[in-house]
Structures are given as structure tokens and as C-alpha cells.
Design a protein that fits this description.
The protein is α+β, with helices and mostly antiparallel strands and about 450 residues long. Among the domains are: about 90 residues; about 100 residues, Elongation Factor Tu (Ef-tu), domain 3 (Beta Barrel), CATH 2.40.30; about 45 residues, no CATH class. β7 and β8 form a beta hairpin. The longest helix has about 100 residues. It is rod-shaped.
């Protein structure tokens, strides 16, 4: 459209003058129309020339000089514009080629953009979290305005911490044709004001209605993008939808550490319905903020990714002499970690119950042990008592045994004495009476 109007304006300049008349060759000169001033060539030969004729001839001569000067200036202006027409036509042709190339690149990039959008999914930024339930992790988030893309009820969302220094989106690139015309300077269309910056012959008077020349604006430094990395806060499910906010609940039971991190985070948050896939260009090894998000055990993999392989690197991760790290499916990893964490939590709860049972049994055993110890102490006291009684009985027995031995010895002596006396009695009874009388004392 702009090129067509430019060509029409340049064609109109060939047949127009500043006085508004039309140039035609002398051979094609038309007769003077009615009302046109005609000066006879032979009027100067008449002797009766009036003063007004002479004045008219003088004015015509003066006006002819002015007209001749203006005609020269117009011719020079035409020549200047004709020289610029080639530049504009070349700029238009280059812009057309650039436009066709850009359109082809756009067509080629559309499948890539579609795949990127499908992989990325929908994203909602600038979500402000409210108070987090310290027991369940449920939270209500609000937006400054209703989201342009509505959030479905019962949808599963992945929540990230949105950095505060995120840079705004970059402006779209200019049209190649407009950029080429802006660089070369464009002529105005017919009836339009001249384009600012259009070439004008040196020394020519300014065109009426043209804007004053303004100095070019100083170039501004490109905006430095902020740190776009945000920490992953967890997977949530939409449990309620309001006009400017939604209620979220964790799909998995949060650990105390994750719950504390969620409670301490004041936002803003970024929501996504698709978890990003791992790529080799996600983490920049030269960015400390990126490397700080990785654990020490895997940080070395990201630092070596794409660099020359070392002799001790696994051969399956070496491609054309470069170390290539294994890509991770974070969705599968998070789900597996949640499953394992659930199993470990169940095992931990079972172990706690077992520990409670064992602790109670141990306490019962300690109580029984104390009872037995008390019984042992009582039995030991009784044993000591019985030991004392036994010792007293043994001592008394020893005394009785000594007395018995003494009595038995006295009995033995008595038996011996009785036996002697019995012998003597028997002898006395068997002797004659005279001997018996003598024996008697």
C-alpha cells in the first residue's frame, strides 16, 4: 500500500510545477484558452506602444526570470527525487524479500512454537498466596485481576516461586518493510505531508507543512532479564474457585520441611498445568542461582554437560567427545518420591507403634523386675532370719551334743562302776559265809 502511493506521488511530480501548471513540449503546445493572457510578439514593432504595454513587457520579463529560476529549482528537485526513487524501490524490493523470508521462517517456527506451548502448557503468574494451613497445607491464592485464561475446577497445578526481579516480555520486532523505509526515509503519498527525514536538495527551501527536523533519540540500553528461576513448591489440586482467587490443596501429604517452606513463602507464585520437561539448556552452569538449586550430588553433571568428556566418564554419556548428562522426567521423579515418601511415612508410623508397644512392654518388664527385686529382698530378709535361727539351733544342738556326750560318758562310767559292783556282789554271794563276813567291812 505504501509503495503504491509512493509511485503515484512520484509520477504526479513529473507533470506538476509549483505554480500548478503543466509542462508540455513546444511541439505539443496547445492554443491559448479563453481567458489566458497572450502577449503579441510584434507589439514591440509598433510605434504607438502605450506605457502600459511597456510596463506589461517589463513585468513579463521579471516574472519570466522568476519562473525560470523556479523551473530550474523544480528540475533539480525532480532530479533529486528521481535519484531517491531507485533507493526506495531497492529498499522496497529488499523489504519484500525480507518479508517473504520472515514469513517462511514464521511458517517453519510455528510447529516448534506449537510444540513448545504444548510442552509448557498454560501458566498463570503473579498469584498472591494467603495464609497456609499449617496442618494440611491448604492455601487460597488471589490475582489482581481475573485471569485471562480461566482455571478449571479440580485441575492439578504445579506451583513455583516467582522471582521478584522477573523482566517484562520483550517487544515484538518491527515489520521489515517499515524498518527498511524508516532507515532509507520515505516520500509522502499524493496529497500527504512529506515523510520526516526525506531527502531534499541542498539549499532548497523547506516544503510548506513539513515537520521540523528533530534530532534522533539516544539509543537506550537493552533491558537486562531478571533471574527467571523459581523454586518448586509442590503439586496442588484446585478445590474451590472464586472471582479473583482459587483454593488449593496438596495432592500429596507434605513433609514438615516442605510445609515450613510453603508457610514461610510470601509469593508471588507462578502456576502451571504442565510440569516442564528437562532439557540441556534449562540450567546454566555459569549462573550461580541455577547451580544453587541443585544438590551437591548432581551439580557436577550439570557443570560438565556439553563440555569435553573425561576418561572416567561413562561411555553411554559421551557423544562425539562431549559429555551429555541424562535428562530427567521430573514428574515421574516427584511422583516416585511421593510414593516412596508415603511408604516411608507408613513404615515410620508402624515403627512408632512398634516402638510404643516395645516401650510399654519394657516398662511392664521393668515393673515386674522391680516386683521380683522386692520379692528377692523380702526373701533375703527371711533367709537371713532363718539363717540366724538355724545358727542358733546348730549352736544349741552342739551344746546338747556336748551335754549328751557328757551324760553318755557318765552313763558309761556308771555302767562300768555298776558292772564292777555287780561282779563284786556276785563274788560275795558265791563265797562261804566266813569269807563273806570277812569281806564285809
Amino acid at each position: 500500500m505504501l509503495a503504491t502511493r509512493l509511485r503515484k506521488f512520484l509520477r504526479s511530480l513529473r507533470y506538476r510545477t509549483l505554480a500548478g501548471t503543466r509542462f508540455e513540449p513546444a511541439a505539443r503546445a496547445r492554443p491559448a484558452a479563453r481567458g489566458t493572457l497572450v502577449v503579441p510578439i510584434g507589439i514591440a514593432d509598433r510605434g504607438n506602444m502605450s506605457i502600459w504595454s511597456k510596463v506589461l513587457i517589463g513585468l513579463i520579463a521579471v516574472v519570466s526570470l522568476v519562473f525560470f529560476y523556479l523551473a530550474l529549482r523544480t528540475l533539480k528537485t525532480h532530479q533529486a527525487w528521481q535519484g531517491e526513487v531507485g533507493k526506495y524501490e531497492k529498499a522496497i524490493a529488499d523489504a519484500e524479500v525480507a518479508r517473504e523470508t520472515a514469513e517462511q521462517e514464521i511458517r517453519n517456527l510455528r510447529p516448534v512454537l506449537h510444540g513448545t506451548l504444548v510442552d509448557r502448557g498454560r501458566i498463570w503468574r503473579d498469584a498472591t498466596p494467603g495464609a497456609v494451613n499449617p496442618q494440611t497445607g491448604e492455601v487460597t491464592i488471589t490475582f489482581a485481576a481475573p485471569p485471562a485464561t480461566p482455571i478449571d475446577d479440580k485441575a492439578v497445578l504445579f506451583v513455583f516461586d516467582q522471582p521478584a526481579g522477573a523482566a517484562p516480555a520483550a517487544p515484538a520486532e518491527a515489520n521489515p518493510l517499515e524498518q527498511a523505509l524508516a532507515e532509507a526515509g520515505a516520500a509522502p503519498a499524493e496529497g500527504a505531508a512529506p515523510v520526516e527525514g526525506a531527502p531534499v536538495e541542498e539549499g532548497a527551501p523547506p516544503v510548506e507543512g513539513a515537520p521540523a527536523e528533530t534530532p534522533p533519540a539516544a539509543p537506550t540500553a537493552p533491558a537486562t532479564p531478571g533471574d527467571q528461576v523459581g523454586a518448586y513448591l509442590g503439586q496442588f489440586k484446585v478445590v474451590g474457585i472464586g472471582e479473583t482467587g482459587i483454593a488449593l490443596a496438596p495432592t500429596y501429604k507434605l513433609t514438615p520441611t516442605a510445609l515450613a517452606r510453603l508457610t514461610e513463602n510470601k509469593g508471588p507464585w507462578m502456576l502451571a498445568d504442565v510440569l516442564r520437561t528437562d532439557r540441556h539448556d534449562i540450567f546454566d552452569p555459569d549462573n550461580p542461582a541455577h547451580m544453587a538449586m541443585l544438590p551437591e550430588s548432581t551439580r557436577r553433571e550439570y557443570e560438565k554437560d556439553g563440555k569435553d568428556a573425561q576418561p572416567d566418564d561413562p561411555q553411554e554419556q559421551v557423544v562425539e567427545g562431549k559429555y551429555v548428562r541424562k535428562l530427567r522426567d521430573y514428574d515421574v521423579i516427584f511422583r516416585e518420591n511421593a510414593r516412596l515418601r508415603t511408604i516411608e511415612i507408613d513404615q515410620l508410623e508402624a515403627a512408632k507403634k512398634d516402638l510404643a508397644y516395645i516401650t510399654k512392654a519394657h516398662q511392664d518388664a521393668l515393673a515386674q523386675e522391680q516386683t521380683r527385686r522386692d520379692q528377692i529382698a523380702a526373701l533375703e530378709a527371711e533367709l537371713a532370719k532363718y539363717t540366724r535361727e538355724r545358727d542358733a539351733i546348730v549352736k544349741h544342738e552342739e551344746q546338747l551334743a556336748a551335754k549328751l556326750a557328757e551324760v553318755q560318758a557318765g552313763i558309761a562310767r556308771l555302767f562300768a562302776e555298776n558292772k564292777r559292783l555287780a561282779g563284786e556282789l556276785a563274788e560275795a554271794q558265791s563265797a562261804p559265809p566266813a569269807e563273806a563276813a570277812a569281806v564285809r567291812p
